[in-house]
Amino acid sequence: xxxxxxxxxxxxxxxxxxxxxxxxxxxxxxxxxxxxxxxxxxxxxxxxxxxxxxxxxxxxxxxxxxxxxxxxxxxxxxxxxxxxxxxxxxxxxxxxxxx
Length: 99
Fold this sequence. Notes:
By secondary structure, the chain is α+β, with helices and mostly antiparallel strands. The chain has one domain. Helices cover 24% and strands 19% of the residues. It is built from 2 helices and 5 strands. It has helices spanning 55-72, 86-91; strands spanning 7-10, 19-22, 26-29, 38-41, 47-49. It has a 3-stranded antiparallel β-sheet with strand order 1-4-5, covered by helices on one side. The N and C termini lie far apart (57 Å).
């Protein structure tokens, strides 16, 4: 189903996470992408799971797509100092004892 002309795209079902959470079944692997987070979109714009045998050939493209997704979420690759972390600022007390 996923031929050489198909392009990998973010899974529209799980938005690249590879898993789904719902009130009936709880959490589980995404059925559309089979836990990969990305699917192959063919020339007719139909999405198919990426076959495991194609992963090595698509690895570089998938890594680039994942880096793009993480940037959209605000990930920079740099560690934040505790006093710069929003969760600690929301608590009102920083690790150095200052408010």
